[in-house]
Each structure stands twice: as structure tokens, then as C-alpha cells.
Amino acid sequence: MNQVQLFIQIAKAQGIARRYFVVNGFDGALTMLGIVVGFYFSEGASVEVALSACIGAAVALGMSGVTSAYISERAEREIELRELEQAMVKNLGDSAHGKVVRFIPPIIGIVNGLSPLLISLIIILPFWLPVPLFGFRFDPFEASIFLAFLCLFLLGVFLGKISGSAWLWSGIKTILIAGTTALIIYFVSS
Amino acid sequence: MILLKRVVLDVLKPHQPSGLEFAKTLAECGEGYRVHYTVTAVDEKTETVVVAIVGEDIQFNVIAETISELGASLHSVDEVEVINVGESKQN
Predict the structure, then answer these.
(1) pTM of the model
(2) Contact residues, chain B, for A88 at CB < 8 Å
(3) Domain that holds residue B19
(4) Using CA atoms, how far apart are residues A152 and A144, in angstroms rounded to an integer?
(5) What CATH number should be reported for the domain holding residue B68?
(6) DSSP-based three-state secondary structure for A88
(7) What is residue A63's predicted lDDT score, i.e. its pLDDT?
(8) What is the rounded distance in angstroms from the CA atom of residue A145 to the CA atom of residue B78?
């Protein structure tokens, strides 16, 4: 068993990282959907302004994800280490458990930060692309909203797969959440 | 030359890594090591285990270091079996 596998097992990091990936990825996708839908329903919003707003939000989500997960994970793991040290009546700083406190929180932070950032960048991809693309004409706002729904559906499918439940129903549930969000934004902004 | 062939250790360890991984990691300390792992008591955060290791030439220091790296404490060495193989093995 190599060191990384040992740390991951001690920290139970695989499940935690997966949870953070989905939770914050969902946050990122829904935030982008909200911003793009808001611009779509507000008459005359330019692609450049929407793109700037979306990039700003994506970077903020990424930074927030990295720092919040790192700080909270580090604090939780230090508490756990102290409790374990009391039970073991020894200092565990040089053991695998001590290394987990230093090694795992940055990884969890990166997963938590990259997840919304990458999903956001995928969703706003149509704003970067030239129109028409290979002769195909599309509305960047509508294409972006479609990608947001697709990302949310895939996150739902992923959750359904790992929980062993019906993946299609899980994907549909996230689509319904996205649809409800878009409707609320429509009624609020009109 | 004296070779350590078998040692039985009383160890206090955290629940993680699991007994399976703990025993595997100890077995990785030397080729041909056979590890027998028995849990004798379980507490809220720790468990007491008896680890019996059998091998041709057990490196006790490596075993002790590995136990410590895994966050466990070596409480006592309960049984030891050694053999004198003479001087020939030294070369």
C-alpha cells in the first residue's frame, strides 16, 4: 500500500472529495445558470458583459471553494488528531495520521475549488465561441443555458450511479431543480 | 549470527488503517514475512491487537518504525523466537 492510498484510507478522503465535488459543482452550475438566465431575460444584455460577470462569479466560486474547504477540513482534522492523540496517549505528528492533517486538506480544497470553476467554464463556453461555428448559428445564451442543464443532469446521474439508485430519476430530479430555479429567476426579473 | 524468526507483539492502534491494511503494510516490511493479526480489545477510538510475525530474518527495527508510522504504539514484545545460524551467513 503506498503512502497516498494509506492517507486516503485513514482520512476516508475519497468519499469526502466526491461529496465536495458534487456539492460545489452543483453550486457552480446553478450559479452560472442563474446569471445566464438573468442576462437572457434582461433585454439587450451583451455577450461581453455576461461573459465578464460569469467569469467573475466562476473565479469567486473557485477561490471560495478552495479556501473554505481547506480551512474547515484542516480544522476538523486537527480536532480529530488531538482526540486520537489523547486516546493513544502519544504524539502522532510524525505518523500517517499527522501527515493526513497536512496532506489531505489541500487536496480536498483543490477538488472543492476546481469543481465549480471547471463546470462554470464549460457552461460559459458558448460565450467564447465564434458565431456561426462551422456554419452552425446559435444563440450563446441559449447554448449556455442548455449546457448548464446538461451539467446538472450529469451531476444527478453521477450521484445516482454512486448511490446505486435509479440514475435517470436522479438526473431528472436535478433537471427539475434547475428548471425551478430558472422559473423563479424569470418571475423575479420580469 | 542470530536471526529473528518469529515475534509476537502487543500493539495499540487507531481504527484506521484497518486491520487488513495494517497487517499488509507490516508484511511489506520484508520478503516472506507472514503476519497473523488478532484483535483482543476494541475501544471507541483504538483497538488492542496481537501481531505475530514469522520470517526468515525479521528486521525488528523496521517493524517497530512501521508500527509507529501507522499511528500505533508497541506496548510489549510478548514472544520471540531466534536462531543461531553460525558465522557462515554473515558472508
Answers:
(1) 0.78
(2) 12, 14, 45-46, 71-73
(3) 2-84
(4) 12
(5) 3.30.70.1340
(6) helix
(7) 95
(8) 68
B17 to chain A, any CB pair closer than 8 A? The answer is yes
- Is the pLDDT assigned to residue A104 strictly greater than 50? yes
Q: Please spell the DSSP secondary structure of A35-46, one letter per residue.
A: HHHHHHHSTT--
Nearest-CA distance A16 → chain B (Å): 16
Q: Please check whether residue B8 lies inside any domain of the structure.
A: yes
- Could you give the 3-state DSSP secondary structure of residue B17? coil
Task: Using a pLDDT cut of 70, give the percent of chain B over it.
Answer: 96
Interface A-B, measured as beta-carbon pairs within 8 A, has a size of: 50
The pLDDT of residue A1: 59
Query: What residues are paired with B54 via a beta bridge?
Result: B6, B34
User: Cell digits for A179?
Assistant: 428548471
| B14 domain residue, yes or no | yes
Q: Give the model confidence (pLDDT) of A65-92 as tens digits.
A: 999 999 999 999 999 999 999 999 899 9
- Would B54 be classed as within a structural domain? yes
The ipTM assigned to this model is: 0.80
